[in-house]
Amino acid sequence: MNINKNYDNLEQSYLFSTVAKKVNEFSLKFPDKKIIRLGIGDVTLPLCKSVVAAMHKAVDEMGVQATFRGYGPEQGYDFLREAVAKYYSKKNINLDLDEIFISDGAKSDLGNILDLFDVNNTVLVPDPVYPVYVDTNVMAGRKIIFINANSENKFLPLPDKDVKADIIYLCSPNNPTGAVYNKSQLKEWVDYAKNQNAVLLFDSAYECFISDDSLPRSIYEIEGAKDCAIEFCSLSKTAGFTGTRCGYTIVPKNLDKLNKMWLRRQTTKFNGVPYIVQRAAEAVFSDEGQIEIKENINYYMENAKIISDTLDKLNIWHVGGKHSPYIWLKCPNDMSSWEFFDFLLNEIQVVGTPGCGFGNNGEGYFRLTSFGSKENTLEAMNRLEKVNVKEHMV
Amino acid sequence: MNINKNYDNLEQSYLFSTVAKKVNEFSLKFPDKKIIRLGIGDVTLPLCKSVVAAMHKAVDEMGVQATFRGYGPEQGYDFLREAVAKYYSKKNINLDLDEIFISDGAKSDLGNILDLFDVNNTVLVPDPVYPVYVDTNVMAGRKIIFINANSENKFLPLPDKDVKADIIYLCSPNNPTGAVYNKSQLKEWVDYAKNQNAVLLFDSAYECFISDDSLPRSIYEIEGAKDCAIEFCSLSKTAGFTGTRCGYTIVPKNLDKLNKMWLRRQTTKFNGVPYIVQRAAEAVFSDEGQIEIKENINYYMENAKIISDTLDKLNIWHVGGKHSPYIWLKCPNDMSSWEFFDFLLNEIQVVGTPGCGFGNNGEGYFRLTSFGSKENTLEAMNRLEKVNVKEHMV
Fold first, then answer.
1. Any idea which fold B49-286 has?
2. Is B95 in contact with B81 (CB distance < 8 Å)?
3. Each residue of A151-199: pLDDT tens digit?
4. Which ipTM score applies to this complex?
5. Under CATH, what is the fold of the domain A5-47+289-392?
6. Cβ contacts (< 8 Å) between A60 and chain B: which residues?
7. Which sequence spans correspond to the domains of chain B?
8. Judged by CB atoms within 8 Å, which residues 294-353 of A form the interface with B?
9. How far is A342 from A153, CA to CA, in rounded Å?
10. B7-47+289-387, CATH topology level
11. Helices B275-284 & B78-89, crossing angle to 10 degrees?
12. CB-based contact (8 Å) between B198 and chain A?
């Protein structure tokens, strides 16, 4: 039996294990110091009330023969696909139900969608990047090329017409940088993808953090996108579903062959999302649910503003934090990512994520997130203001 | 962009759509006739009480900040993996926690495990077969060879040492035939796999229907299996989880490389099973849960006995039905699968599944299942006894 040798080419990431190790060592040395974690990439607020109520109801249904549900459609129940379609229609995007596929999350679908493509494709990925885009293609043995996101383009790289690519990844609002493309920038990407006969894999997992109506929350707000783009979205950050697991993927019928292949892939290799979770997701899209999740998003965005305002005050260059839970900052005094990590941990006991863990262009940058509590975020920023960054540099 | 051309080699299955079409046409023509469905491949009894209680509790936890759960470990929470390990220990099988991977079901894992293997492998599949084994390998472009299951070997084929195979599928109790391997038969398969340096993919989704302690419920009851076999199991049929979605896959540490690769695959392309569902699954393994699911299994097995006893009385050759919810019968009077389907529908309004839909060797065979109600199963078998099969043949 021959194993898939491409797995040998995967790079081991020691980012989060090294973070944990350094924090543990510090805690043991200084047990009385209160550490504030602003590196969290996970939601912390509980599920909202209408979601909890919908789940209790669904659990009861599952316990009674007359309302029990066995196998559902692999691509999701109509009640949830209709709710997603209605959500898109508010953005003036019309979707047929068979363009909508319910899944257990964007991460699964972003990985599994690659089943539809030949090994012989060139993959274009921005650097810095959500590591899943890279690793899933390394596993399949595809050629990967990188496009530079950096301070010059404000971490929003635009296509280079001379570069040939077949599969293009974009994420806006971006993880890890929090940078958000505007419509004309995304139009450049759509035109580029169409000219190249490429498929654009658009990760919109953070769309709900956009508060400016002029900024696109879906790739399908861009003319021509239905001819080239697949969109991945998730309720993980929108509604605190990181431990509840529900997302949705849009494969437009203009991409007829891919739409049919994805249906075949999912009906063959997937058995759908739990009924209970689909009822929970339906509740997110209800009028009440939308009000409730908005409160949570506002809470996180206030934290983001606290961080962003403090960085402005301290003249620390950064992107994100306005339409994103992530704030991506340039480490002051030309510190490396790990130097700044050590500085924050040792001097003010604030933990973030070194940018170098997200790609070469992340070196010298640092990611903070707004998923902590307001109290901790305020305290962390107070500590940062008080410490004199320049003086503390070795 | 180049698509995966292997998808063009997938055969369209019209099995269940043709069944539905024929049943619809009959209903329109004879609206007063009561049709009994014994073709159901899905459970019908609701979730048991301790599972429902566990889910309500977990939903409440998710609605409160102090007990809310975000991302969990992709391979499953320890509380559930410990419950699975304890369940195996009752069969005298010792598993380390990192040999156990919680998933959203056996179908997903049976498909996704193929990520770990090169295209250049020969796949050995019994015929008739659960179509997922075939389709997932066609999608990847692997060479598939079939081994004949038929009345001569009682649908329990044994390995042919002259046949070279790299990836071997076995399912016992079998879907669709209900046939169950004994220990010495499985030992032949394990020895064969080890000699060939092949991996054995063992689907034990129906293990809980085995009531004879001398029959193996796990491949790891066979000496040497930990050196060559990966086992896939599911709570779908065990505990009525077809719409709740939870399974588990065992990748032994003796298969060190595959164990590490599967962990990497799952952490990269999967985000774990919902916390609520994992708590539900934990309840299945509790003492109360085990008593409750046993009642449901007994209910289905009584139906299976009703069917099996009637077929015995009518001298209709069959396998399964003793340690399986499936009964696989030879169509009387040398009818083809579809002829017998039409006969049952037209004469006694009983719907089953034509065996030809599961492979070439299924032609002339027919699958009935025990997932209907006891009343309907009894009535269907009364109707079958009354109709004179021989006389009604054209």
1. Aspartate Aminotransferase; domain 2 (3.40.640)
2. no
3. 999 999 999 999 999 999 999 999 999 999 999 999 999 999 999 999 9
4. 0.96
5. Aspartate Aminotransferase, domain 1 (3.90.1150)
6. 52
7. 7-47+289-387, 49-286
8. none
9. 28
10. Aspartate Aminotransferase, domain 1 (3.90.1150)
11. 20
12. yes
